[in-house]
Design brief:
Layout: H1 3-14, H2 20-33, E1 39-43, H3 47-57, E2 65-69, H4 70-79, H5 88-96, H6 103-124, H7 129-140, H8 146-151, H9 154-169, E3 176-177, H10 178-186, H11 197-209, H12 218-227, E4 230-231, E5 238-242, E6 244-249, E7 252-253, H13 255-262, E8 267-270, H14 271-274, E9 279-282, E10 287-290, H15 293-302, E11 307-310, H16 317-327, E12 333-336, H17 341-354, E13 357-358, H18 363-369, E14 370-374, H19 377-381, H20 392-401, E15 403-405, H21 411-417
Parallel strand pairs: 3-4, 10-11, 10-12, 12-13
Antiparallel strand pairs: 1-2, 5-8, 5-11, 6-7, 6-9, 14-15
Helix pairs in contact: 1-5, 6-9, 7-9, 9-11
The chain binds a DNA duplex (20 and 20 nucleotides) through helix 17 and helix 19.
Organism: Caldicellulosiruptor changbaiensis
Domain Conserved hypothetical protein CHP02679 N terminus: 37-244
Domain DUF2399: 269-418
DNA sequence: ACAAACGTGTTACTAGCACG
DNA sequence: CGTGCTAGTAACACGTTTGT
């Protein structure tokens, strides 16, 4: 009889249904121990199982529980069969139709696969020193990319990573929109869109290389990309300005903004336009920042000499760039917003980031601005994120009253202060 | 003595909700 | 309709316990 024939015969023998459960358990034991030892326990064995196992182990098995010594099963008793020249492990593998390896071997195998992956990736960027830096950052932080690695086949992931790393190496020297940038690098304008995995991976790696946290929201995303000369939402991310000038290059004032200021006309600038300025400044000796466009409008009409920025809700990148730039010119910054959790959170950010002074945002003005609108528990929770000392007392009062207050009601007081 | 299993505490994602 | 928040859940790492 040839070796193959006896192997097949052996597989057939162990494939009988009575062995199935026992062999599965033996397989599990081997995975954890790395050898055939220990005990397995079959609860409630069927007659079929008892019969098959009794015959093989040459002892009578009965009762609700069958305990089998794995070493006895796989080594001692196996030696006594006519299959003794065969390897029990390969038989087990053939019967269960799966690999018989330990957890440790499994890990090592996986590590090897990952290391092969890195090798192929490095090979693609052969001798490029800049790439080596990026590759290193990727390797060292591989953990945070593992979910993507698992999601794709190695080949697919390799292709994605090639493009992502290429993109980082080719990031623009002067501002460029994401769609144009993606087309330049990959031929596909949507390749790095942030709902795509490639976009997420790109952002992740970019944030690591920039030594930053991964962007938590749309604004942080815009900001990270903007700092790398990539623009998203370049037309929808805008900011409302009044009496504010800009520098085209150092010291050279922009005539366009100057014209609108002289005309006392508010204007809206999108990120797309903002990107071309070197800096911004206020024509007035102070800057007032407001959340609400209606209040902005009232202030501009009644105090025409003021310089003003309207954030129109949450602080967006366009407003941050302009306010940040004006803050550097060392003039006082005043902020006024609504008295609700969102409004105080915005105020907190403006105070923390740009050293602004709250304008009419104390407890007294809160009481004047008070409405009947209830604030629920969940929204009140947000108040605990307010860090500024200047806002603590009004936060306290709000938790007490659980009512919102609106800027519109205190426009007169705001105007008086300016 | 060693590795695996278990339990616990922390972190990363996801879904659902309220707001503008 | 998109956004940011919280809370719930899954994944993960660490230290301890258990079994051979």
């Amino acid at each position: 009889m040839t070796k193959d024939k006896i192997f097949d015969e052996c597989v057939e023998y162990f494939s009988q249904p009575g062995f199935k459960r026992a062999l599965e358990l033996i397989h599990r034991k081997y995975r954890s121990l790395g050898r055939f030892s220990g005990k397995i326990i079959l609860e409630n064995p069927s007659e079929e199982e008892k019969e098959a196992l009794s015959r093989y182990l040459r002892r009578v098995l009965r009762g609700e529980k069958v305990v089998i010594d794995v070493k006895d099963f796989a080594v001692t008793k196996f030696q006594d069969t006519k299959f003794s020249r065969l390897d029990f492990k390969s038989i087990l593998s053939a019967v269960l139709k799966k690999e018989v390896i330990t957890k440790k071997e499994e890990k090592e195998l996986e590590n090897e696969r990952v290391s092969d992956f890195f090798k192929s990736l490095s090979a693609h960027f052969d001798k490029d020193e800049n790439a080596a830096v990026v590759l290193n950052a990727f390797k060292e932080n591989f953990k945070s990319f593992e979910s993507f690695y698992k999601k794709y086949s190695q080949k697919e992931f390799l292709e994605i990573m090639k493009k992502v790393i290429e993109a980082i190496l080719k990031k623009p020297q002067s501002p460029e929109t994401l769609a144009i940038f993606a087309t330049r690098v990959t031929g596909n304008p949507h390749f790095f869109d942030d709902e795509q995995d490639a976009g997420k991976i790109f952002l992740k790696l970019l944030s690591i290389i920039n030594g930053r946290e991964f962007p938590q929201n749309a604004e942080e995303k815009s900001e990270l990309l903007f700092d790398n000369n990539i623009l998203i939402d370049e037309l929808s991310n805008w900011c409302l300005l009044y009496n504010i000038g800009g520098y085209i290059e150092d010291g050279k004032e922009d005539e366009g903004l100057k014209y609108f200021s002289n005309q006392k006309k508010p204007i809206i600038l999108p990120l797309y336009t903002i990107k071309d300025y070197k800096g911004f400044f206020a024509y007035s000796n102070k800057l007032v920042v407001v959340e609400n466009p209606a209040v902005f409008s009232a202030i501009v009409q009644r105090v025409p000499a003021i310089s003003a920025v309207c954030t129109n809700g949450h602080l967006r990148l366009s407003a941050k760039i302009i306010i940040g730039s004006i803050a550097k010119t060392d003039i006082p910054l005043l902020y006024s917003g609504d008295f609700d959790p969102e409004g105080l959170l915005i105020a907190d950010k403006v105070i923390q980031n740009f050293g602004a002074r709250p304008l009419c945002m104390d407890e007294n003005h809160y009481l004047l601005a008070l409405s009947q609108n209830k604030i629920d528990e969940r929204r009140l929770e947000m108040l605990k994120n307010v860090k500024s000392a200047q806002l603590q007392s009004v936060c306290q009062k709000m938790k007490e009253l659980q009512l919102a207050g609106y800027q519109e009601r205190i426009v007169d007081r705001i105007v008086e202060e300016l």
